[in-house]
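Page 42, continued from yesterday. The earlier attempt failed because a stray header line got pasted into the input along with the sequence. Redoing it now with the clean sequence only.
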Amino acid sequence: MSSHNSGSSISVSNLLAAKPIFSCQLDGKGNANPLNVDNEASVQQPSWIHLNFANPDTIKWINETNLIPELVKNELIKPNQISKEIRFDTGILVVLKGVNFIPNELPDPIVTFRFYITDNLVISARHQQIDAISQLKNNLEKGIGPVDVADWLIQVSELISDQVNLSFNSVHNKIIKLEDLVLNQRIFSYKEIGRVRKQLIVLRRLLSPQRDIFVKISTERISWIDDNDRQRLHDISNQQNHYISDIDSCLLRLASIMEQINSFLAESTNKRIYLMSLFTIIFTPITFLTSLLGVNLAGIPFSEQGWSFVGLMGLLAVICIVSIIWLKYKKWW
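This time it went through. Structure tokens are written below.
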């Protein structure tokens, strides 16, 4: 086998040297057979090896094998990746991001999945557990898995999209519950809204670039992708575009919920201030009278004069008038 996989088969012993987490040969009928050192991977029976790039033996194999272009080697073992698609003469490298949906828990963990795929070989790599891969393996065991490499690409893309759909549906249900609480004028913690909003933003950042990736793959002139496969990839892209629109709608709904909560809080605060103002109006005359009747004139100037009390009243009246004029001037009244 040449370094660019241009031959008709690949040595299975070479693939097993990578210490894969999972390895199999597609039988073309939806099932898979474990890789056997006595077999060879051909176009009719392509192989799939799933690697853990945190394994030192796997990293060594990736760096030394001649089955993978040099640029792909770096991308397979790079820890932090963004979603991308790179076309090579021998195949394509795809990096996708997804979620492992966990019911009743937000936010869902984000996982990164990268794979290099040719007409007779799929090499995928991950660091953490990916639920979509586990489901794909279950499909192969049930006989409803991919029949070739193009079908493998489509099925794994659909499974990753399904996990995103489950996560979005969970978030959407939480938004409906929040809206019901707001309609019933029940105030809840802003922390819950923050978790929902964070998950929506994460899903949008995840879906936006991948929507374009599926369109790009469907337009690539790749021999092992036919028109039917291209249409299915377009459908996945359209589905993710629909998710993005729904996410934008949900973000607007969350903003509306926040506005209603702020309105309820402002109304509640105004009611409390109004109630305090009523108490102030009631007790202000009483306080004034008790203060006036309790004033001690013995220590003030002109206390011996008969008009001293009347003078104090006049001084208080002048202070009130000056205060009113000043409030009018400042337009606070």
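Notes: Residues 295-333 form one domain.
Reminder to self: strip header lines before submitting.
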